[in-house]
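REQUEST FORM: STRUCTURE PREDICTION
Request ID: SP-0412
Submitted by: Lab K.M.
Chain count: 1
Length (residues): 147
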Amino acid sequence: MRIHRTLCTVVQTINRMRDLRAQLDGWAKRAETLPDGAPVAAQAKALRERVLEIEKHLLVPDLRPGWADNLNHGVRLLEKLMNIAEVVQPGDYRPTSAAEAAFQDLAARIAVQTAHFEALIESDLPALNAAIAGAGFGAIMLPVPST
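STATUS: Completed
RESULT:
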């Protein structure tokens, strides 16, 4: 169950990252067309790239079905965690100590990336929203993860 809860958290975090990246793309495009919008566009693009770098640790962004992207770019943390779930699922017994150790390692590495993302949301997103509001453009809203 811990593996599935962690998987759920990772997928929710990835969905939030993608939602944020889409909003940042939209703001960058809109701000570029507005007078005095270049600084806001640059700030949105920079934040988008930082979010994308974090997402790249969790999975291959924009993975297309049927393509060998994960083979070309390496297996990421989400897929590794999914593989552990497949290994421990068949039996009605405790996971092996190796599976437990692998889960602990992956969970810790995932927690680091999730913490990086949350830190971006706490520090950089308010600064961008302030710049957007200061320019009179509006603000970015990000849904709160469900527990």
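NOTES: The radius of gyration is 18 Å.
Reviewed by: T.R.
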